[in-house]
Amino acid sequence: MAIGILALQGAFAEHGAMLDRLGAEHFEIRQRRDLERPMNGLILPGGESTVMNKLLRELDLYQPLKAMIQEGLPVLGTCAGLILLARNVEGGQPCFGTMDIRAVRNAYGRQLGSFSGEAPFAGGGSIPLVFIRAPYIAAVGPEAEPLAQVDGRIVAAQQGNQIATAFHPELTDDLTVHRRLLALSC
Amino acid sequence: MEKSRYELNKELAQMLKGGVIMDVTTPEQAKIAEDAGACAVMALERIPADIRAAGGVSRMSDPAMIKGIQEAVTIPVMAKCRIGHFVEAQILEAIEIDYIDESEVLSPADDVYHIDKTQFKVPFVCGARDLGEALRRIAEGAAMIRTKGEPGTGDVVQAVRHMRAMNAEIRRVQNLREDELYEAAKNLQVPVELLRYVHENGKLPVVNFAAGGVATPADAALMMQLGAEGVFVGSGIFKSGNPAKRAAAIVQAVTNYTGAKRIAELSAGLGEAMVGINEDEIALLMAERGK
């Protein structure tokens, strides 16, 4: 089993380190030929969604990855990755649009609005949450379910095999979110 | 788990990795940079090449101009203050800049002391020519480091020199015995705790970008292959013939920095690169400012 990590820009190496701790094989996706490898799951990391959205198209990764996600490839999108998955984006452009959620980009303002905390995740215990110029989810459609909330706002959701978090699990020691992706990928 | 402001600030730099940060002087340029795939922009009144040409004292940009750029784009916006000018930094924090560059490109305001960056909530990036400078700036609170290079020249030689020097010193520190770290810290004039981090991890405790003289996709890929985690491009884009095309090409070259075939395609038909000045033709060495 191997997880592909989109490595066009952003904090992709941090996700690789989390998967190492879980003993999961992973590889970076930077160009079309990287998609020739068998892939059981996909991570869309934090970074700038505008950059990734543009490079996905220029590097001919957009259509094949979108098709794979639509066919049920398990995917985890964190922060910018959430934006890439969202069907509607306030303050930004949708990319894959495969997840029935409405995201608000830079919802907490500039860097001074970045914060950390903790909240219960997916009906389980509390996990640490790190928000860096983060989005949140203003609304989820009937197909998607919220996984976590902070101050009454949805900050994680799941729809079938797609998980999106507004926070950065890869910047903490907590493996809960990555375990959830691996459970879908088995 | 409550993370410190400093941790969150270092982590914003992690989100910029693998990206290109572009100097812009107007909202229009900022939009061109964002559309070309910049992961952040540096708002400044004059790009380094023009600062160099104009001479005189160079200061923080007009806050109104910076705000105009903040409103034009959705990506992070950085701005420069003079070395040691903590009031310029306070002003930049007051307008909620995403990152402050305490920069040798501007005229230094203090020839002894850098800003005590631990007193600020917003993050700082600082230039460094070697490991000692980098760790001193980090001790003062910098959350990100870039090579100084020689700004406004279009000559990459100094960025290369600084990146190689830093990485060679990191490798040397990695190979020291534990009991040799104290003497090494003394010689580098840095706190031993930071040096111990380098010894154990083989890298700086913050993200390290290349800056200064990057003008082509090949320059950017060169810096990435030498170990930069991302690239600042200053004068190189908007002093060239086709800024939008060159900017987009540099962004792609940073993402696939080992793909020579692709970089060859990206380098073709870009129009005129900035003319540039060779290192030995310039009178003012900005990299000598603030050690």
Task: Outline the structure in words.
The complex is a heterodimer of chains A (186) and B (291). Chain A has 186 residues and is an alpha/beta fold. Helix content of chain A is 24%, strand content 34%. Chain A contains 5 helices and 12 strands. A 7-stranded mixed β-sheet of chain A has the order 2-1-3-4-12-11-10. A 3-stranded mixed β-sheet of chain A has the order 5-6-9. In chain A, β11 and β12 form a beta hairpin. Chain A is globular, with a radius of gyration of 15 Å. The model of chain A has no long low-confidence stretch (mean pLDDT 97). In chain B, β5 (124-128), α6 and β6 (144-147) form a beta-alpha-beta unit. Chain B is globular, with a radius of gyration of 18 Å. In chain B, 44% of the residues lie in helices and 12% in strands. At the A-B interface, α1, α2 and β7 of A face α1 and α12 of B.
Task: Summarize the model shown.
Chain A is of the alpha/beta class and 186 residues long.
Strand content of chain B: 5-15%
- Rg result of chain A: 15 Å
Helix content of chain A: 10-25%
Q: Secondary-structure element order of chain B, as H and E?
A: HEHEHHEHEEHEHHHEHEHHH
What's the rounded overall pLDDT mean of chain B?
Answer: 93
* Mean pLDDT score of chain A: 97
Gap between N and C termini of chain B: 36 Å
CA distance, first residue to last residue of chain A = 7 Å
- Count of helix runs of chain A: 5
Using the alpha-carbon principal axes, give the shape of chain A. Answer: globular
| H/E element sequence of chain A | EHEEHHEHEEEEEEEEH
Number of distinct beta strands of chain A: 12
Stretches with pLDDT under 50, minimum 5 residues of chain B: none
Specify the helix fraction band of chain B. Answer: 40-55%
Proportion of strand residues of chain A: 25-35%
Structural class of chain B: alpha/beta
